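Example S7 (structure tokens).
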């Protein structure tokens, strides 16, 4: 999570803690559809919508969080609660059953819920290091987060971005390829893969990657800018 995104999320969490749910949604609005959103951001938006008695929008946000992190226990539980309130008992039961199974096997010697909590704490520490200019320390903390949450694709994307900023495009490409093997439709990860290829000297690969992104999301202006940059270099 970059510094500007972290600042926005901190404001949103403060507003949420003060029960200003509209304010929290307003703070998160600029990043929820920007490609910078993470599972915890969608989960927080879902909680806001739920507490504002807007269950359909809450379910949409919980589903987005779960698309990024299928084992997001809190998102599964809150999704089940909203479905139960809507009288959709069979779907609620399925959500609660998924939550019961979400614990999964131990990770790095910790139970899955503890590992998930530790992964998020390491990710937050990585954000703090990055904000303070400690990029190498940020990478180390984010690597630890990914080790504890190997299926948390949003955390792996954070790691890839940090690696790009640190001048390690080949390592970033490896992380992005892991993400896209699991979620080939995630355009933001593919955009970053194009950047990793470009910075690693694979201009042709970057062009192909960004052209595919443009076909999937022609509204992303930065993809057009990246393509224009890459196309200045002869094939």
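Recovered sequence:
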């Amino acid at each position: 999570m970059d510094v500007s995104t972290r600042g926005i999320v901190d404001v949103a969490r403060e507003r949420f803690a003060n029960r200003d749910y509209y304010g929290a949604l307003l703070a998160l609005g600029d990043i929820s559809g920007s490609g910078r959103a993470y599972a915890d951001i969608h989960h927080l938006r879902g909680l806001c919508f739920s507490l504002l008695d807007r269950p359909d929008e809450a379910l949409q946000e919980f589903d987005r969080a779960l698309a990024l992190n299928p084992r997001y226990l809190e998102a599964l539980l809150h999704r089940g609660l909203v479905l139960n309130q809507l009288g959709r008992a069979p779907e609620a039961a399925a959500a609660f059953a998924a939550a019961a199974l979400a614990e999964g096997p131990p990770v790095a010697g910790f139970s899955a819920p503890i590992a998930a909590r530790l992964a998020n704490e390491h990710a937050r520490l990585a954000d703090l290091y990055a904000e303070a200019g400690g990029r190498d320390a940020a990478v180390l903390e984010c690597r630890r987060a990914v080790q504890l949450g190997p299926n948390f694709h949003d955390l792996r994307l954070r790691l890839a971005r940090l690696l790009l900023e640190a001048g390690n495009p080949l390592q970033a490409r490896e992380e992005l390829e892991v993400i896209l093997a699991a979620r080939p439709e995630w355009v933001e990860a593919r955009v970053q893969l194009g950047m990793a290829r470009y910075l690693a000297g694979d201009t042709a690969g970057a062009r192909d990657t960004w052209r595919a992104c443009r076909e999937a999301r022609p509204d992303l202006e930065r993809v057009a800018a990246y393509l224009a940059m890459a196309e200045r270099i002869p094939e």
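Notes on this example. The chain has a mean pLDDT of 89.
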